[in-house]
Write a structure and sequence with these properties.
Helix 2 packs across helix 11 and helix 8 packs across helix 13. It is globular and about 65 Å long. Strands 2-1-3-10-4-11 form a six-stranded mixed sheet, with helices on both faces. The chain has a five-stranded mixed sheet with strand order 7-6-8-5-9. The longest helix is centred in the first third of the chain and has 22 residues. It starts with a helix and ends in a 5-residue tail after the last helix. The chain has 13 helices and eleven strands. It has two domains: 164 residues, Bordetella uptake gene, domain 1 (D-Maltodextrin-Binding Protein, domain 2, 3-Layer(aba) Sandwich), CATH 3.40.190; 107 residues, D-Maltodextrin-Binding Protein, domain 2 (3-Layer(aba) Sandwich), CATH 3.40.190.10. It is an alpha/beta fold.
């Protein structure tokens, strides 16, 4: 057998082996990398879905929290994992659509290193203020901010994070001047807001809804297209005079880019089935999250459109990476 024949035979065996592996998938435990610590919004969604996803896959599914560098550590780990379907990644909006515009050199490429599986859930932000603020609507907040330029502080979960960009988006459209105070995460930002050290925050609904219900924070608007069933009394930013204002976060399942097509199809079908389960929907809806489960193609198009939107906001605001 000559050299060319041996190479051709090796290729045939490799393709056959890949096909056989894909057909038998999954045959062992699947690991889901979550790029933030337990209790974060992405972790809450991942754990709500993981039980039903494991049931659909017929295998154990373990959550692997890999926090660090604003999610970059977990993204890098997932991007470099073997593309066999046994390591999947619950990505966040920031990791896929914001960070790539802020950092020129990343250890991962969204387009090159990942294959979209499905958009799992979306969570709107809530524009909240400390109860001492003499405002009960977005219109009143704008009037106060214009009367006191540079005197109102707004919190974010870090420079260039979605809560920061949501506030910048608001400032651009409302033409107001508020001062940015960056925190290292939602917990310290919310704590200082509750203490009155900052006055305004576009907080993830998963993180602030309980404080709104208890009266410790006042909600002015949500950043989704429609009002949320969990807090139907809160108007949307669109209703409040800002057409097209959507600035929530979302969580989507990704796999390493070279994962076999048959494995991606199985993963998509099973995660779509998992998020349709009434118990999963009820659990997440109670915290302001909406389950989705769209196709890989739809998810890829959504990532592209969201990335373009935030690129414009970043360019207009001049926000730079720390």
């Amino acid at each position: 057998m000559n050299c060319c024949s041996r190479i051709m035979l090796s290729l045939i065996f490799a393709v056959a082996a890949t096909g056989a592996a894909a057909q038998s998938y999954p045959a062992k435990t699947v690991r889901m990398i979550v790029p933030f610590p337990p209790g974060a919004g992405v972790d809450i969604v991942s754990r709500a879905v993981s039980g039903r996803l494991a049931e659909a896959l017929g295998q154990q599914l373990i959550i692997d929290n890999r926090a660090g560098a604003g999610g970059i550590l977990g993204a890098e780990l997932a991007a470099k994992a073997p593309p066999d379907g046994y390591t999947i990644f619950m990505a966040t909006a920031g990791i896929l659509t914001v960070i790539p515009h802020l950092q020129a050199k990343l250890p991962y490429s969204v387009e090159r290193d990942f294959a979209p599986v499905s958009l799992v859930a979306s969570v709107p932000s809530v524009l909240v203020v400390h109860p001492s603020m003499p405002v009960k609507s977005v219109k009143e907040l704008i009037a106060l901010a214009k009367a006191k330029p540079g005197q109102i502080n707004y919190a974010s979960t870090g420079n260039g994070t979605l809560p920061h960009l949501a506030a910048e988006f608001f400032k651009q459209q409302a033409k107001v001047n508020m001062v940015h105070i960056a925190y290292k995460g939602s917990a310290p930002a919310t704590t200082d807001l509750l203490g009155g050290n900052v006055q305004v925050f576009f907080g993830n609904m998963l993180s602030v809804i309980e404080q709104v219900r208890s009266g410790r924070l006042r909600a002015l608007a949500v950043t989704s297209q429609q009002r949320q069933a969990v807090a139907n009394e809160i108007p949307t930013m669109i209703e409040s005079g800002f057409p097209g204002f959507e600035a929530g976060t979302w969580f989507g399942l990704m796999a390493p880019a070279a994962t076999p097509r048959e494995v991606l199809a199985r993963l998509h079908g099973d995660v779509a089935k998992a998020v349709r389960q009434p118990d999963v929907q009820k659990q997440l809806a109670g915290q302001g999250a909406t389950t989705i489960g769209n196709t890989p193609e739809q998810f890829a198009a959504y990532i592209k459109s969201e990335s373009a939107k935030w690129a414009k906001v970043l360019a207009a605001s001049g926000v730079k990476a720390d």
